[in-house]
Design a protein that fits this description.
InterPro entries: YdeI_bac, YdhG-like. The chain is α+β, with helices and mostly antiparallel strands. The protein has two domains: about 110 residues, Aspartate Aminotransferase, domain 1; about 60 residues, no CATH class. It is built from eight helices and six strands, in the order ααββββββαααααα.
């Protein structure tokens, strides 16, 4: 799908659902939500927070509620697009006739109220604690300069080095990898830094 620069262009690109998308857009725009374009799709926000998105695909179109898990869904109109999705819920349609304008507006208003109440699922952050493997720990303990340099690395870079050593199956491979990374650690560079700057 080509990148678009306006909601109108997005709807034009999905002209097979154009009338229906305009109906949903009008319902959402009748509220206090601010219309924006993110990820080349219409997104509606409140105080800078994403509340609702509008989307069209080959066989269906709909509204996604970024924190739809908190909606009561008394009419059973919402689906969870993916099993791993915690907060996002979709209201899907296949034709203009499927749209119950009053129900859509009620769900949109409830989503706005939930946002005002601060109901949202925060993404889980991975633990910052780095588990240093035995082989690397032994090397660090025997070399104070290397130990100090390792501690100055970001947790992400520390994890890269730990994973690199741990993924070696044989002790000989671990030893050769430790020799390879020692000067890199002392220089303060990450294992994959040379690829990140390409």
């Amino acid at each position: 799908m080509k990148k678009v620069s306006s909601v109108e262009a997005y709807i034009k690109n999905h002209s097979h659902f154009g009338d229906a998308l305009n109906v949903l857009r009008a319902i959402i725009n009748s509220t206090e939500l601010k219309e924006t374009l993110k990820w080349s799709a219409p997104v509606y926000e409140l105080d800078g927070k994403n509340v609702i998105g509008l989307g069209a695909f080959k066989h269906h179109f709909g509204i996604w509620f970024f924190n739809g898990v908190f909606l009561k869904d008394e009419k059973q109109l919402l689906v969870n697009a993916q099993e791993k999705t915690k907060a996002l819920r979709q209201m899907r349609f296949t034709s203009l006739e499927d749209i119950d304008k009053d129900a859509v507006l009620a769900y949109v208003k409830e989503a706005i109220e939930n946002q005002k109440l601060g109901k949202e699922i925060k993404p889980e952050r991975k633990s910052k604690k780095v588990e240093v493997t035995k082989a690397l720990k032994d090397k660090l303990d025997g070399n104070p300069v290397l130990f100090d340099a390792f501690k100055l690395l970001t947790p992400g870079k520390q994890r890269e080095y730990c994973d690199y050593i741990e993924s070696a199956k044989r002790d000989a491979t671990k030893d050769s990898r430790l020799e390879k990374i020692t000067p890199m650690i002392i220089k303060g560079v990450g294992l994959h830094d040379k690829y990140k700057n390409c």
